Amino acid sequence: MISRWMYISLVILYGFLLGPFVIIFMASFGANANLAFPPQGFTLDWFANVFETSQFVDSFWISLQLALLSTIVSLVMGIPVAYALTRFQFAASGLVETVFSAPILVPGLVIGFAMLNFFVLLGDMGVMTGLFIGHTAILFPYSVRVVSASLRNLDPYVEDAAVSLGANRLRGFLLVVLPNMQAGIAAAFVLGFITSFNNVPVSLFLSGPGVTTLPVSMLSYLEYYFDPTIAALSTLLVIFTVVLVQTAERVLGLSQFV
Amino acid sequence: MIRRPNQNRSIILLVSPAFVFVLVFFVLPLIFLLSQSVLPEDGGITLTGYVDFFQSRVSRIVYLRTLKLGLIVTVICVLMSYPAAFVLARMPARRRSFLMSLVILPLMTNAVARTFAWLIILGRRGMLNQTLLSLELVETPVRFIFTETAIVLGLTQLFLPLMVLPLVSAMENIPDDVLEAARSLGANRLTTFRRIVVPLSSDGLVLGATLVFTGSVTAFVTPAILGGARLLLMSTLLRQEAVIIFDQQAAAVVATVMIFTTLAVNLLLRVLRVRQV
Amino acid sequence: MRSKPFLMLILALLVLGVVGPVAVAQDTQTLTVSIWGFNLDVLEENVFAPFEEMHNVEIVLDTGNNSDRLARLQAEGENSSIDVVHFATQFTYMAGQADLLQPYDPDMLENLGEVYDWAQDPLGNQAGVGYTVNSLSLIYRSDLIEAEVTSWADLLRDDVAGFVSIPEMSTTFGPATLIMIDRALAMQALDEGEELDEINYDAELAWETLPRLADNLVTTYIRSSALTTLVQEEEVWVAPYASFAVGNLINTGHDLTTVIPAEGAVGQTNMISITAATDKVELAHAYIDWFISHDIQEAEALDLIDSPVNATVELPEDICALLTCGEMLNTMIVLDQAEVSDRLEDWLERWNEVMVR
Q1: Does residue B228 lie within any of the structural domains?
Q2: Which residue in C4, C8, C9 has the most chain A C-beta atoms within 10 A of its own C-beta, making it the best mutation to test that interface?
Q3: What is the domain range of residue B5?
Q4: Which of B70, B169, C119, C345 is the Cys-Cys partner for C309 at CB 3.0 to 4.6 Å?
Q5: Same domain for B41 and B153?
Q6: In a mutagenesis test of the C interface, which of A56, A185, A223 is the best target, namely the one with the most C β-carbons within 10 Å?
Q7: Helix-strand-coil split of chain B, %, nearest 5
Q8: Are residues A245 and B108, on separate chains, in Cβ contact within 8 Å?
Q9: Can you give the pLDDT of all 357 residues of chain C as single tens digits?
Q10: Which chains have 3+ CB pairs within 8 A of B?
Q11: What is the topology classification, in CATH, of domain C27-133+268-329?
Q12: A71 in a domain, yes or no?
C-alpha cells in the first residue's frame, strides 16, 4: 500500500517543517551581521547579544510570569468547568461548551483589538493586568477541553464508590478524581503555557510602556535590525521548547491532546 | 452520569467563576466591538462602515487576496500532508510517536522565530537565490520577499502541522484489514486510496482544512514580516486602520468581517462533515 | 504514570517565574518616555542612563513610530501613563490639535536660550521644544546605479525599477516625498530661465505619476530602520532617507552616495512635548532641558544620530557634512504642517488606492 513516492512525500514534509529550524540554527552561529547565505565564520556573539539586549531579558521574564500566571488561573477556573461538563448532564452544557471554545474560533488579532478598546473604556487597569486577562481568556479552550478529555476516560463510579465508602465529595474529588486527572492537567498546563508564551496577536495590542512580551519584542526588534540576534534567540527558544515538549510527550503523550 | 437533587447548585458553583470571567472579559469586548462597527460617533445605527468596506477597492482587494492566499495555503497543505500522513499512520507506534513529536515542534515555537527563517531563505542573498544562481537557473537574483509567494510559503510552514495531526489521527483508525481486503479484492493502490482511505479520513481532512484556512486568513506575523508595508492582508489592514489611520470604526468593521469569515468557514465545513458521514 | 520529572519541570518554571523578576524589579520613581525604537542603545548610553542616575528615576520607554504612538496616546487619553513624548513636528501638531499636550514653561528650561530661535517653540503655544533637526534627501548605491542620481524625479527612472523604496504616507516624510517629486516634475516642465518658488501642496503631478512610481518599488517603508535593513540586504538601491539614519546606512558597508537633490532637501524638527495626562511636570521639564543641553546634543551628533539644535555645539566638518547642519539649515525646505495635516486624511486613502495594486 505504501509506495516509494509516499516516503518521498514524508521526507519533503519534514524538510519543509524542520528545514527552517536548521537554517535559523546555522545563522545564529554565523559571523556576518546580515542575512546573506551561507553564513560566514563562526561566532557566539549573537548569543551574548541576546543576553545583553535588555528588551529581550525584561520581556522574557514578563512572558514567563504572564504564561505561568494565566495558565494557572485558567486551570483553577477551568478544571471545575471540565468536571461539571463530564459529571453532570444539564441543559446549558452545550452553551457552556460553546462559550469556552469560542476564544479559539475568534482570530487572536481581533481579540486583542476588541479587548484593548474595551479595557480603555473601563479605565486604567495597568498593562500587565490587561495582558493577564487577555491571556487567561484565550487559554480556557485548552484547560477546559484537555481536562475534560482526560476526565471522560475516568469511570465516574470510582468516585461514587469512594463517596459511598464514607469520603465526603470534596475528599472524594481530591483523593480519587484529581490524581487521575494529573495527566490531563499537566498536558493542559504545557499547552496553555506554550500558547501564552508564544502569543503575538493578543499581546500585540495589549502590550504597553515598559511591558512587552518576548514574541512582541522580537517582532519589534525585527523592525529595527535584521541581524542574527533573532536567530540566536530563536535557537534558545527552540531548545527551551524541545525540552519542555519532549518531557511532556514522553510522560504524557502530548500529541493526542493537540 | 450523576443526578442529585442539589445538582444545579453544584453546577452553578463549578461553572460560574470561569463563565463570568469569559463573559465579562471576552464576550463583552466582542459585543462592544460589534457595536463600534455600527455606531458612529455622531449617534444612530448605521451600516455605512460595511458598505464602505465592500465598496472600497482597497479593502475588497485585500479581502479577496486574503481568501485567495488562505485557499492556496490550504490546498498546498492538503497535498503535502495526505500521502505523508498515511505513511505516518501505518508506522509502528514508537517511531510514529517520535515523528509526531517533530510535527508538533514547529507548533510550539513562536511565529516570529519561524518567520525569521524565511527572511534568510528568501532574501536577495538568501539560500534560495544562492541555489538558483549557482545552478544557473537564473541570471540575477529573483525577488521573493514582499511577494504573495513569500507569504504562502511562510503560512504553509506555520500551519502544516494543523493539517498533519488530524489527518494522522483519522487514518490511524482505518483498520489494516480493510485495506488488505480491498487489495485482495483486486483494487489497485490508487483505487484503494480513493475509495477507502479518502472517505474514511475525510473527517480529519475537513478538520485540518478548517484549521489551516482560518489560521491563514487571520495570521498576523507572517504577512507583517514577509508582506511588508504594502502587501496588505486582512490582519495587517486591521492593524493599519487601528493604529496608523486610527479609524476605529473601519478597524472594527475589518475585525468583524474577519470574525464572520472564520465562523462561516467553520460552519460550512462542519456541515460538509456531517453530510459525508 | 511517570510524572516526577514533569512535576519537577513545572516546579522549576514556577521558581524561575517567581524569583527571576525580583532581580529585575526596582522601586524608584519612573518617567515614561514615548519615543521611536531607533538607536535606543546609543540613546540609553548618552541620554537615559546619566539622566536616571542624576534624578534617581527610572526611564520607562514606550516605543513605536509616530502614528502608532499617537494612536495609543489618543486611545488612552487621560489614563495614559506617558509623561513626555517625542514626535516629528507634524505629529506634535496633530497631538496638540487633539489636546493631548500641555504647554511647557520656558522658565523651567535653563538651556532653552542656547537653542536656535526656530527650534525653541516651532509650533507656537509652547506645544513642544525642537530638540533635533533632520532632513530628507536621497541615498543610492553608486556601485550598482551607473547614472548619477540628482533629482527626486530620478526615483521614476527605468534603470532603478524594482530597487526603489519610499516612506509610507503615514510617516513623517511620506507627504514630503510626494511633494518633492511633484516639485521635481514641475521644474522639469519649466522653460529655460524660469524659476519655481512656491511649494505646491496639492502635488497633483506627483499623484498622477504615483502609479508608475509604485511599479518601481520593492516595498514602502514605515521606519528608517526598515530602510536600513532593506539597503543592507541589497533589496533597495535608491531611496529617500532621513538624516538621522545616515550612520546606520553607512554601517551597512555598501557603496552608498548621499545627494541633496537639485530641488532641495526637506527639513523638519523632532520635538519633545509634555503630555496633558502627566503630573510629573518638573521631571518632564528636567528631561527636556537635559536633551537640549550642550553635552547631550554634542554626544548625539558625534554618534551620527541627532543633528543639534543647540547653537553652542560645534561639529567637525566631516560629521557636519553627514548631518543636517551648517549651511544646510539655511537652504532646506521646511513644509507648512497645517497645509500637510489638512490633506493627510484624504492622501492616506488615495495612497492606499494606488499602493494596493
Answers
A1: yes
A2: C9
A3: 1-46
A4: C119
A5: no
A6: A223
A7: 80, 0, 20
A8: yes
A9: 445 556 666 666 766 666 555 444 555 789 999 998 888 888 999 999 999 999 999 999 888 888 889 988 888 888 888 999 999 999 999 999 999 999 999 999 999 999 999 999 999 999 999 999 999 999 999 999 999 999 999 999 999 999 999 999 988 899 999 999 999 999 988 877 787 778 999 999 999 999 999 999 999 998 888 899 899 989 999 999 999 889 889 989 999 999 999 999 999 999 999 999 999 999 999 999 999 999 999 999 999 989 999 999 999 999 998 899 988 898 999 999 889 989 998 999 899 999 987
A10: A, C
A11: D-Maltodextrin-Binding Protein; domain 2 (3.40.190)
A12: yes
What distance in Å separates residue C40's CA from the closest CA in chain A?
10
pTM summary value: 0.88
Residues of chain A in contact with residue B125, where contact means CB-CB under 8 angstroms, are 34-37
All CATH 3.40.190.10 domain ranges of chain C, comma separated, are: 27-133+268-329, 134-267+336-355
> What long-range pairs does C101-107 form, CB within 8 A, spacing at least 24?
C101/C127, C101/C128, C101/C273, C101/C274, C101/C275, C101/C276, C102/C274, C102/C275, C102/C276, C102/C278, C102/C281, C103/C127, C103/C274, C104/C128, C104/C129, C104/C273, C104/C274, C104/C285, C104/C288, C105/C285
Closest residue of A to C17, CA-based?
A65
Chain A: give the shortest CA distance to residue C296, in Å: 22
CA distance C171 to C222: 6
Q: Any CB–CB contact under 8 A between C68 and chain B?
A: yes
Domain span holding position A91? 53-256
Which CATH superfamily includes the segment(s) C134-267+336-355?
Answer: Periplasmic binding protein-like II (3.40.190.10)
Chain B residue with minimal CA distance to A103?
B26
Cross-chain residue pair C225–A244, CB shorter than 8 Å: no
Whole-angstrom distance, CA of residue A30 vs CA of residue A38: 8
